[in-house]
């Protein structure tokens, strides 16, 4: 299994019109944009996703809000992870019932110490691409197929031991 890497994040300001956000997502073939505070670049205040569009179409149409701020319809409570949590991304997404997970780090030195930096976004597409990636053994293929949410942690166990054990079982 390959290592899961975040994709580059699409970022907009909170005052960006909803229609512009949708156009950016279409152009980038991406399912989300991260929404940053207007007055403090770098401060994540929300995420706007394909799911937000679908759930809020009636509200947007009724209010004729396509040119209004994305802040009106974005998801405000954004779950983020650090690079250390990337191996758990699939499980976190499953438990939280969301498809996009921003990856952040807190800067430790310099004038921006203590500020949060966006490193990218892990999407369900990234997780699937990682899970379906070519595997190096039949055992890994079986584990990835049967236990996709836990395959990464199971594969960390020596697959050589598992393969030897299975070869010795008469079929």
Which radius of gyration do the C-alpha atoms yield? 20 Å
Overall structural class, as computed from helix and strand content, comes to alpha+beta
Q: Kindly state the number of beta strands.
A: 5
Helix content: 25-40%
Q: What are the segments in which pLDDT stays under 50 over at least 5 consecutive residues?
A: 150-171
Largest sheet, described in full?
3 strands, mixed
Q: In words, what does this structure look like?
A:
This protein has 171 residues and is an alpha+beta fold. It is built from seven helices and five strands; from the N terminus they run βαββααββαααα. It has helices spanning 18-28, 50-62, 89-96, 124-132, 138-146, 151-156, 159-167; strands at 11-13, 32-36, 44-49, 100-106, 116-123. It has a three-stranded mixed beta sheet with strand order 1-2-3. It has a two-stranded antiparallel ribbon with strand order 4-5. A hairpin with a 7-residue loop joins strand 2 (32-36) and strand 3. The two termini are 27 Å apart.
Short description:
The protein is an alpha+beta fold. Helices cover 38% and strands 17% of the residues.
Descriptive keywords:
alpha+beta, single chain, three-stranded mixed beta sheet, globular, 38% helix, 171 residues, two-stranded antiparallel sheet
Write the layout of secondary structure elements.
Elements: E1 11-13, H1 18-28, E2 32-36, E3 44-49, H2 50-62, H3 89-96, E4 100-106, E5 116-123, H4 124-132, H5 138-146, H6 151-156, H7 159-167
Parallel strand pairs: 1-2
Antiparallel strand pairs: 2-3, 4-5
């Amino acid at each position: 299994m390959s290592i899961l890497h975040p994709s580059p994040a699409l970022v907009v300001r909170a005052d960006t019109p909803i229609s512009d956000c949708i156009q950016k997502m279409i152009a980038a073939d991406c399912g989300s944009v991260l929404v940053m505070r207007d007055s403090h670049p770098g401060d994540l205040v929300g995420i706007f996703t394909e799911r937000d569009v679908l759930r809020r179409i009636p509200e947007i149409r009724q209010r004729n809000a396509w040119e209004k701020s994305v802040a009106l319809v974005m998801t405000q409570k954004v779950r983020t992870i650090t690079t250390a949590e990337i191996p758990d991304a699939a499980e976190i997404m499953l438990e939280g019932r969301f498809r996009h997970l921003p990856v952040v780090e807190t800067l430790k030195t310099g004038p921006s110490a203590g500020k949060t930096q966006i490193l990218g976004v892990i999407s369900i597409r990234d997780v699937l691409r990682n899970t379906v990636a070519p595997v190096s053994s039949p055992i890994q293929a079986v584990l990835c197929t049967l236990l996709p949410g836990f395959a990464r942690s199971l594969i960390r166990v020596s697959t050589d031991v598992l393969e030897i054990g299975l070869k010795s079982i008469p079929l």
